[in-house]
Amino acid sequence: MAAPARRRRSTRTRRPTRRPRRRTVRQRRREAATSRLVGAVVVLATVIAAARAYPVTTGVLAALILVAALAVLLVRTGRLRLPALPTAARADFTHNIAAYQHMTGAQFEHAIADLARRDPSVRTATVAGGANDRALDVLLHLTDGRRIAVQCKRYAPSNRVGAPVIYAVNGTYRAYHRCDQALIITTSSFTPAAQRANAELDHPLRLIDGRALGRWVSGGRPPWVA
User: Fold this and answer.
1) Is Membrane set as a keyword in this record (predicted)?
2) How many of the other CB atoms lie within 10 Å of CB of 170?
3) SS3 call for 127
C-alpha cells in the first residue's frame, strides 16, 4: 500500500486580530453632549405636553421655580441673607449656655460684652462691673446714640433672680448711669415676684433669662432690637 501523502504546511502568516479602537476623549464628549441634548429635548417635550394638559398647574410650578432660582442667585451674590434655621443643637438652649454657667461672674460679664459686640449697631461695650458698680456690669453705646446698662447674673438654674435686683437696677440706670434702657441677663430665670415688680414699673426693664440668652447666642436678635 502506498503511504498517505503528507499535508503541506501553509506558508501564510495569520494576521493579528484587530482590537476595537478606543473612543477618543473628543468622541466621549460628543456622545455625552448628544445624550444631554436628547434628555433636554425629552424634558422640554414633557413640559410642553404637561402645559397643554394642565396650564394652571404648570404656570404655578414655573413661577415657583423662577422664584427659587432668583433666591439662590441673590443668596450666592450676598444680596439676600436667609434667617438661621433652627436645628436640634440650637433648640437645646441649655446646651448653648452651658459654657456660661461654668464661668465666674467676671468672666460672664466679659462674655456678654463680647456677645454684644457681634451686633453692628453696638459702637462700644465696656465692662464696668466690680465693687460699688451700682447695678451696672456692662455699658453699651449704640450707633443710634442710646446708652444701655446691662446687669449680668451668672446663676445656677435653681437660683433665680429676685425682685431686689429689679429695684436696684431700676433705681440707678437712669439717674446715676444716664442710660436710656436697662437689661438684666441671667443664665437662670426670674422669680414671679421679680416679674411682677418689673411689670409695675413705669418703664419696665428687659429681662433676659437662660432661654432668651440661648436664642441670642444661637444667632437670634439682640435684646435691644425691637
Assistant:
1) yes
2) 20
3) strand
Q: Which grid cell is 130?
A: 466690680
pTM of the model: 0.59
User: pLDDT per residue over 41-64, tens digit each?
Assistant: 777 777 777 777 777 777 777 777
Cα distances (Å, whole numbers) of residue 66 to 44, 51, 53, 138, 192: 16, 16, 21, 48, 51
Return the percentage of the chain with pLDDT > 90, whole number. 49
| Other C-beta atoms lying within 10 Å of the C-beta of residue 193 | 13
> Tell me, what amino acid is at 47?
V
Q: In what order do the strands lie in the sheet with 181-186?
A: 122-127, 138-142, 147-153, 181-186, 206-208
Neighbours of 26 (CB within 10 A): 8
pLDDT digits (tens, 9 = 90+) for 61-86: 777 777 777 766 655 555 555 454 34
**Which residues are 6's β-sheet partners?**
none
Cα distance between residue 100 and residue 109, in whole Å: 10
Computed from CA positions of residues 104, 106, 112, 117, in that sequence, does the dihedral angle turn out positive or negative? negative
Q: Are 136 and 172 in contact (CB under 8 A)?
A: yes
| Contact partners, residue 146, CB within 8 Å, separation at least 6 | 140, 180, 181, 224
What pLDDT score was predicted for residue 4?
Answer: 57
Report residue 109 CA to chain centroid gap.
Answer: 25
Q: Where are the domains of the chain?
A: 29-76, 88-217
Please report, to the nearest 10 degrees, the dihedral formed by the alpha carbons of residues 104, 212, 97, 80 taken in order. -120
